């Protein structure tokens, strides 16, 4: 349908609607995991928006969907370029919406780089200054993801529950399964291991069936990480958690390393298929750390070295620092 729209726009020489079509094609493609196509379409929309009569909504759409596509791919430097240009345009035109979106984009760059503390600061500023519900929602959602990544589980749960409630009111930007996925990861981290894994596997099947390939890679990574934490921490020490999960732990602990490896490898395969460098690098790094714990040092070096190379390409400076330190520890 969008390709037909583009053809009609070309026939009647309507560049404005052609730019919108490219923006929506970018959105559609990145949700389907066609990240390279998504970025190409987004940039075509940006080019048109930059040469026709100034239209702030069009400029917002083309930049926003291109940025999301780059976020899915993990391209930190490219996101930062758009954020800076967006901010400059917002200031030049005294447009608060564009300025706030630029702050959001900068936070997305920090998240992609693994710099969660700076991302939280940008998300808090976005939430405080947001003029529309979608930008407000995205700020809340990304802040919750940061808290989860930092292990600040109570704050993550509060933020993600609020995000899940917002989805009932924002019909044009539904992220219920995604918010549920991160909230489930929080609940697993807080003790509901059996129920958490079960729900994440259900969501993995949902994303796979709906061809949401990036989210499939993300949920595989999360499941792998939960099993990795069981290996890394050897076993839960909290008595209530042990009692609550006794059946799950008896069945799972002896095989947790293998399950973690399987899900990390599945995340790596999914990420490779769509050229999603960010989640590919994170999965390689954590798989390498798993191999290090299991004293499989050659494999650890192999995967951590891959992570270093990927993070260098992406400009993911915080992840790169972690990966280099991990590699040095086994060299």
Question: How far from one another are the termini?
Answer: 54 Å
Global geometry: globular
Largest sheet report: none
Low-confidence stretches: none
**What is the helix tally?**
18
Mean pLDDT: 87
Q: Which range does the strand content fall in? A: under 5%
Q: Count of DSSP E strands?
A: 0
Provide the helix percentage: over 70%
Whole-angstrom Rg: 21 Å
N to C succession of SSEs: HHHHHHHHHHHHHHHHHH
Multimerization status: single chain
Helix and strand composition category:
mainly alpha
Give your account of this protein's structure.
By secondary structure, the protein is mainly alpha-helical. It has helices at residues 2-12, 15-31, 35-51, 56-73, 76-92, 96-113, 116-129, 133-149, 153-166, 176-189, 193-209, 213-232, 239-244, 246-252, 256-274, 277-293, 297-314, 317-330. Helix 16 packs parallel to helix 18 (317-330). The model has no long low-confidence stretch (mean pLDDT 87).
Descriptive tags:
331 residues, mainly alpha, 83% helix, globular, single chain
